[in-house]
Structures are given as structure tokens and as C-alpha cells.
Amino acid sequence: MTRRHWFVTGTDTGIGKTLVSSAMLSLLAGSGLRAVGMKPVAAGLEEAGGQWRNEDVDRLQAAGNVDAPLALRCPYLLRAPMSPHLAAREEGVRIALARIRSAFDALATRADAVVVEGVGGFCVPFCDDFDSADLAVALGLPVVLVVGLRLGCLNHALLSAEAIRARGLVLAGWVASMVDPSMLAPQANLQTLRARLGAPLLGVVPHLPQPDAAQAARHIDLRALRATAAQAARRALAREASAALG
User: Fold this and answer.
1) Is the CB of residue 73 less than 8 Å from the CB of residue 56?
2) Tens-place pLDDT, residues 150-181
3) Binding site annotation covers 118?
4) Which residues carry out catalysis?
5) Does 146 belong to an annotated binding site?
């Protein structure tokens, strides 16, 4: 069976990555699949009911339909709302690929679909020699890029797409997120991105006063992802074979 796992990244922080990831989970669960969200590294906790919680992690859990332990859904939960490598350094934690990989593999045995949400943009550092792009490569998943529609998005989106492909990953599709409702010429910007990104547009999520996975899901169509899933799987197998030989 073709894997239904994706890595969701964004052009920046605060552009609707969690909303899109949650909407994808809502659609996948609604289609009858066992779907679970994973946030390998989350930075920024708030105390609620005597427990420390991360809003993004909670929203992903609510959108899926698989009950999995927090340690698998978010192997690294950091308190400070800052870049993960700084938050981890402050707590004396080293973010390691092996722990994340093990958690992902465990989730993949429990679910038909795993949506892995990255942190911030594509190349956010986790430590001195490991970043979000390295994680995407290690997991070998097709990538969904969330583009925050605001001034500067063209450069951010095109550079992100270039970085994704430069690492041998499949850009499976992209979602436009209307984070700035006052943006000038949004349709013209969308047309420019459609012409230049070279990947299918999965949907345009409007500015929502209250982020809601079910509402956002009405604006996203995942059917185009099926064509790229097999391509990503072949590339992942090729990388594994190369690593075994090398």
C-alpha cells in the first residue's frame, strides 16, 4: 500500500501550518483512514489545568482519530516560545533524530496516515548540526508547503521550494493561507505562485477569525497528493538502498 504520510512545512512561522495540518487530518479521518498528527518538536508551553500543554500539539490530536501517547506525537516538548535550538539549550536538552525517527515509526504502525508538522520554516535549527530540513530528509516524506499570503511570500515560497527539491524531496503540493486579509493583489500573487512553484495547489484557506480544522478542510483537496506519494516512496527506497551500500 502506498504510504499516506506527509511532512508539512511553511514559508515562515505563524502562517497557518497547524491549521492546514489539522485540516488534512480532518479530511483523512473523514475518509475512513486512521489518521494521526505528529509535531516532533514543539516550543512554547502554557499551563492549563495543572498541566503544561502546547496548543499546536493539542489541535493536531483533536483533528486526528488515533489515540497515541504524547511521547510519540511530540517527542520534544519545550517550554520557551523560541527557536527550538535555543529553547532546548535553555533546558539542557539535545534534540536527536533517532528519538524522533523511533516515534514516527511507532505512529506509522498505529495509523494509515501520519501528518508530520515541522517547526516554523523549512530550515529551522534543532541543534548545531541538525535542522528541520535534515529531519524531512531522514523521514523521506513528500512535502506539503504552506504559503502564508502576505507581502514577501513569493520569495519565501520559491526559496522554500528550491530548498526542498535541492535535498531530493518531493514537493507534493502547496496550500495558500490567507494570513493577511488586507494583502494587495492576492489573486495575482496566487497566479504567480501557480506558474512558478511547479507543484499542485491543494487549496486556498481564507482568513478565519477562529482557526478551525473542519472549516479549513472545506477549502483543501488532497486528491492531487496521490500522484506524488508513489514518487516519494520510490525516492525514499532509493536513498535507503544508497545508504546501505555506502
Assistant:
1) no
2) 999 999 999 999 999 999 999 999 999 999 99
3) yes
4) 39
5) no
